Amino acid sequence: MQAVVLVGGFGTRLRPLTETMPKAVVPIANVPYIVRCLSYLEENGVDHVVLSMGYLPEPIEKVLADRPPSIKVEFCVEDRPLDTAGSIRYASGKFGELEDRLFVLNGDILTDIPLGEILSFHISRNAAVTIAAVPVADPSRFGVLDVEPDGRIRRFVEKPRVPPSNLINAGIYVYDRRVLDLIPDGVPWSVERQLYPEMLERGEKLYARAFEHAYWTDIGSLEGYLKANFDSVAHLNSTSRFGAGYTARWRDRVPAKPMSPGLWIHESALVSEHANLHPPVLIGPKTRVERGAIVGPSAVIGAGVLVEEGAHVSESVVLDDVLIGCQARVKKCVLSSGARVMEQATVAEGSIIGPMTVPAA
Fold this sequence. Notes:
Elements: E1 2-6, E2 27-28, E3 31-32, H1 33-43, E4 48-53, H2 57-63, E5 72-77, H3 83-92, E6 101-106, E7 109-111, H4 115-124, E8 129-135, E9 143-147, E10 153-158, E11 167-176, H5 191-201, E12 206-210, E13 216-218, H6 222-234, H7 239-242, H8 248-251, E14 263-265, E15 270-271, E16 276-277, E17 281-283, E18 288-289, E19 294-295, E20 299-301, E21 306-307, E22 312-314, E23 316-318, E24 323-324, E25 329-331, E26 334-335, E27 340-341, E28 346-347, E29 352-353, E30 357-358
Parallel strand pairs: 1-4, 1-6, 4-5, 8-12, 14-17, 15-18, 16-19, 17-20, 18-21, 19-22, 20-23, 21-24, 22-25, 23-26, 24-27, 25-28, 26-29, 27-30
Antiparallel strand pairs: 2-3, 6-11, 7-13, 8-11, 9-10
């Protein structure tokens, strides 16, 4: 099967983390998102992927430089933004000969939705497009799908005050090949605002396949990014759920087994026996945690990090080469690579800190 993954966005909700890296390579439990995404696709029978890229393509290419031959990955860089539908059409040209059906994925979702079930549903309904849908507690924050009992889509409703359902677009699609011909070539064109509404007006069959119990989260917001990391740590021993990282280079970022339930410490990390660790916790290579430090609950720490004496890190993601000084406090935050939190400093909850210094208190 073939798949296009849309990874060209700016990742504005994760700035300043995404000022120096595209959203596709932000780490999820110490493994770049795109590595986990490709692992998920491979596990679901996809063998040829085109990445539709725009913003900062070079880091994505570098991360995937040693990809294995088991899945063919091609890069498609836009000269100018083509919006969602335009990007799909442009990227699909990389396949050469298109198969009858094509998977399309947003490049900012972490999920275990089985692609085979979407495909079977799509074929059974003779659909032009099938959209994977998931229920959410507050659909008013999203674009909502209004569907018939058999799943056929009546309309798309953007952030309604009174939602017609609790189903939202999960960012996974199956397209019949002919749908690509409905997208103007080389022109910015939107899936949500142009392609799908026009298809509904023409009477085309657009269906939603609901996955009531699947795991799904959007990594593009701070809340979703933290959740994706902590959930991934909670399921590190279940590789089929999130993908374990599909090269030895990235598998080495994650310990082979936990020291105790929910506690994953890389063999090259140095953790004082007088430090306090509260699972779920993942500590990466060559990181040092000093005596009296408190890590967790819910903490993902990258490589080469120093957590000094008495510091407290919880509900946070810390990327590589970060200093967290003595008695510093970090909660519900993301610290980008190179950040320095000085002695007794407190990082405001809900912050994303770039490669800067948070001064001492």
